[in-house]
């Protein structure tokens, strides 16, 4: 909040706050700043202060003034014409009636994926952040991680692991540990079928760069992880959004895409889907695999949340036996995000091609942390840690659901896993900007759609949404909208 006791003037404080949001893309290119009168009301300052702050932003080249329209963040991309928006995106999954959506599309610029990613490194405050995609650090803290690293940093071992490149496919001991771990969820992958990566996102990128070329059609579940839409778009792929339902992807839409576009790849989060929390049913899984065989496309199964899921959960890779499927997972969501360890398990016929793509980008991956993780898995430390986190998350989920519902929210899907898919009743892009003023980061529903339509939905992190103060502030700001 702006403060009159600061050594900086109110004008400078306001200009600095807005400049920081623009530079971190929390205010994306093309976004319209609040009107002078509205900003003055929100911040509790005079219109003169707001005008002076906007003038500073103009002088810094961060915004531009448009005659009789207001101030906009510079270097904007064209705003999608509301008339061209697919009506299915304006309502339905986005949680907003079509007429309301069209009215809002004409005056808004949605947040982009990089906004949420950058926010992971530029937290708006020290308050709990419901929009974050990871557990708070204290949830992942452990005593076994330092022990694992110490074992790898004795003089002899450290020299062995540091003074030469590691194995291109990844540390052999970790690949053997991962092979055993995958057997526990019925995914048959020998160590030779596994390639370690710099996180799960890197694994997804390797698959895309190996199997696809610019312009290729790719089916992606919607709503879905914003980064995946942005990453595929940056690679020049043609995104075919597939509505995600409680039992799995919309099979009729998939079949139609297969007939019309001959997609090369389907990207799926089968278990504890982000943001809905849905998990695939066996019936849907078998039909997806039938489509893949009939229409000759591969499936990349992102199992990032496997550590939070029951072992009996239905997985495409288990049913398919890694024939048309490529299994991807990582450890940033459960332990040591900065170790940056992910992996993929692939059909033998694809493994070498995928490895070549990794070699061209990173040569190898850090053996020291991979060996330490292998020890954590083999000693049962990761399994016990995951169990503790799941129990704690169950309690947090119950508390967060009660708070959300007591403040007038509803859940668009049954709460499960780390995330809740919440209907707020108001435009969550506008709500996100207002909540930033209060020091809270939200994840608006538009981020989870390929075309980024307006939405009343938002994704909350159950681990960071237990703060009653947040929900009181949320309720007050929402009522103002």
Summarize, please:
With 481 residues, this protein is an alpha/beta fold.
What is the number of helices? 20
> What class, by secondary structure content?
alpha/beta
Mean pLDDT: 89
C-alpha end-to-end distance: 19 Å
Main sheet specs: 8 strands, mixed
> Which outline best applies?
globular
Got a strand count? Answer: 14
Cα-based radius of gyration, to the nearest Å: 23 Å
* Physical arrangement of strands within the biggest beta sheet: 3-10-9-8-7-4-5-6
Could you name the ranges where pLDDT drops below 50 across 5 or more consecutive residues?
A: 77-93, 98-109
Helical fraction equals 40-55%
Q: Which strand-content bin applies to the residues?
A: 5-15%
Mind sketching the topology for me?
Blueprint: H1 10-23, H2 36-43, H3 47-59, E1 63-66, E2 70-73, H4 87-90, H5 98-105, H6 113-119, H7 137-140, H8 144-152, H9 155-162, H10 172-183, E3 194-197, H11 200-211, E4 217-222, H12 226-234, E5 238-245, E6 248-249, H13 251-261, E7 265-268, H14 282-295, E8 298-302, H15 316-320, E9 325-330, E10 342-345, H16 348-362, H17 367-378, H18 381-406, E11 410-411, E12 419-423, H19 428-437, E13 443-444, E14 457-461, H20 468-480
Parallel strand pairs: 4-5, 4-7, 7-8, 8-9
Antiparallel strand pairs: 1-2, 3-10, 5-6, 9-10, 11-12, 12-14, 13-14
Helix pairs in contact: 1-3, 2-3, 8-17, 10-17, 11-16, 13-14
